[in-house]
Amino acid sequence: MQPPKKYSFIRYLSSKKSVDDRALNRHVLQKLRAVVPVASVDNPLHVLEVGCGIGTMIERMIDWDILTYANYVAIDVDPGNIIESLHRLSRWVEKRDFKFSRSSGQSTLIKMAAGNVSITFHPIDLYDFFEKNKDKQNWNLLIAHAFMDLVHMPATIPCFCKRLKPGGLLYLTLNFDGVTSLLPVLHDHLDEKIITLYHRSMDERIINGKQAGGSRTGRKLFAQLQSAGAKILAAGSSDWIVYPAEGCYLQDEAYFLHYIIHTIYEELNTHPSLDSKGFNAWINKRHEQIERGELIYIAKQLDFLAQLTGSL
Ligand SMILES: C[S@@+](CC[C@H](N)C(=O)[O-])C[C@H]1O[C@@H](n2cnc3c(N)ncnc32)[C@H](O)[C@@H]1O
Q1: For residue 125, how far is its CA from the centre of ligand 1 (angstroms)?
Q2: Of all protein residues, whose CA lies closest to atom 11 belonging to ligand 1?
């Protein structure tokens, strides 16, 4: 696949789904299945997902049979993602034996043989959402997937914990943890310099005046969760590993790789300590490796399941 002329975040999120599906840690998932409260029509599971993107986690949670009777609230600051979530979910439901109805605006109901999942999407910033719901301890389960490395964790995790019911669960997945490998190596020294600067750009990211995320979010979550009063029930690796099988990438994963290389370009193309000619050549060679089905990409990540102390 040739490098795209224009990049679409929605297509990136869609291409990421198969990569994430392989990556998600099965031990952490198994623990989630074991401890998630049994739901019924009278006692549905209350789930909040923050930074839901185009809603791929909802598909997974239904496929995993974790959502049977549930009220699921999904928020994302980008209204375009919410619109795409609704379209995508209606197409996804069509391929299954479920019924889908749009009740009003951004609310939907999925009726399955063994359950009903009501989903409400909100195009809203996480902190505005929490401000509006500040006195409510609503949630049995809070999900943040590929999200914690974008926010100021010391303020955000206590916010999550305050909104959980006693004994509520936090399922925080795909938290980047400081290793990016692009293979084959092009130029030892330049490869290392670019990756170091790319990680540093994550560490220096400021959103609303506060440090947001960082390149070692994964390992920091151990201490952050514990200091917010959440007990870690399970943790494990969820590395992204994208490689060509006989020169071809699976599904839309060539697009995923082009997007990752483009992200590195966007982040560093004006960096004063990189020679722009050498850097542009490096970026072009990485895109060419994808076109030829040669590039292997590994990103180290961690998944967590944690629980507020107190019974469910
Ligand atoms: C890396 S994407 C992950 C999306 C989705 N969880 C997935 O993995 O497919 C992060 C998402 O968080 C959203 N986001 C970033 N900051 C946010 C905030 N402060 N409040 C709500 N959503 C936010 C972005 O719009 C984006 O869709």
Answers
A1: 9
A2: 51
Residue 270 Cα to ligand 1 midpoint, Å, equals: 25
Question: Taking a C-beta distance cutoff of 8 angstroms, is the pair 309, 229 a contact?
Answer: yes
pLDDT in tens, 60-115: 999 999 999 999 999 999 999 999 999 999 999 999 889 888 777 789 999 998 89
CA–centroid distance, residue 51 to ligand 1 (Å): 3
Which pTM was predicted?
A: 0.97
If one residue of 56, 125, 131, 150 were mutated to test the ligand 1 pocket, choosing by the most ligand atoms within 8 A of its CB, it would be: 150
Contact 79, 174 (CB under 8 A): no
Q: Write the secondary structure of the chain as one string of H (helix), E (strand) and C (coil).
A: CCCCCCCCHHHHHHHHHHHHHHHCCHHHHHHHHHHCCCCCCCCCEEEEEECCCCCHHHHHHHHCCCCCCEEEEEEECCHHHHHHHHHHHHHHHHCCCCEEEECCCCEEEEEECCEEEEEEEEECCHHHHHHHCCCCCCEEEEEEECCHHHCCHHHHHHHHHHHEEEEEEEEEEEEEEEEEEEECCCCHHHHHHHHHHHHHHHHCCEECCEECCCCCHHHHHHHHHHHCCEEEEEEEECCEEECCECCECCCCHHHHHHHHHHHHHHHHCCCCCCCHHHHHHHHHHHHHHHHCCCCEEEEEEEEEEEEECCCC
Beta bridge partners of 74: 49, 121
